[in-house]
Amino acid sequence: MAARIIPEVNGRALGWADVVVNIGGVAVNGITGISYSDVETMTNVYGIGQYPVARSYGNITASASITLYIDEVEAIIKSSPTGRLQDILPFDIIVQFVRDGKAEVTHRIRKAQFKENKIELKPALDGEPKNATFELIVSHIEWK
Fold first, then answer.
1. E-strand spans in the chain?
2. Does residue 111 contact residue 139 with C-beta atoms inside 8 Å?
3. Which residues are 105's β-sheet partners?
4. What is the dihedral of CA 90, 36, 17, 91, to 10 degrees?
5. Residue 16's pLDDT band (boundaries 50, 70, 90)?
6. Is residue 1 a part of any domain in this protein?
7. Residue 85 has what DSSP assignment?
8. What are the C-alpha distances in Å from 8 to residues 14, 18, 107?
9. Is the dihedral of CA 68, 29, 77, 127 positive or negative?
10. Is residue 96 part of a domain?
11. Which pTM does this prediction carry?
12. In this structure, is residue 66 part of a structural domain?
């Protein structure tokens, strides 16, 4: 059985405490989750025989979502000219893994916009602050 390998940088695995997120150039502390990915259309090209002889590549579709505490959502809403998150101009989201004041990894989610305006409120017995998850539309992701 192969040993489980945990990615480490300088002998220490990166964790949530090492993440710094900037939205439109402003550090966001009330974030509880972020997810982003891109998918490229790929198609096998066939010639003679049963197996592909080449591969064609198409569009890259990026997606992202962000989970924020309600207080953070309200602060962002105040920056909207209409009070709707969807009316905020496109912005970049920069996600960094920072250790000892130095960015080890930087990803840029480009030209993001909120696709919805909402508040999710549910009773919580544990006293945890309320948060909401928002789907974003994005142009592309720079992974370096």
1. 19-23, 26-27, 31-46, 52-69, 91-99, 102-114, 131-137, 140-142
2. yes
3. 97
4. -10
5. confident
6. no
7. G
8. 6, 12, 18
9. positive
10. yes
11. 0.81
12. yes
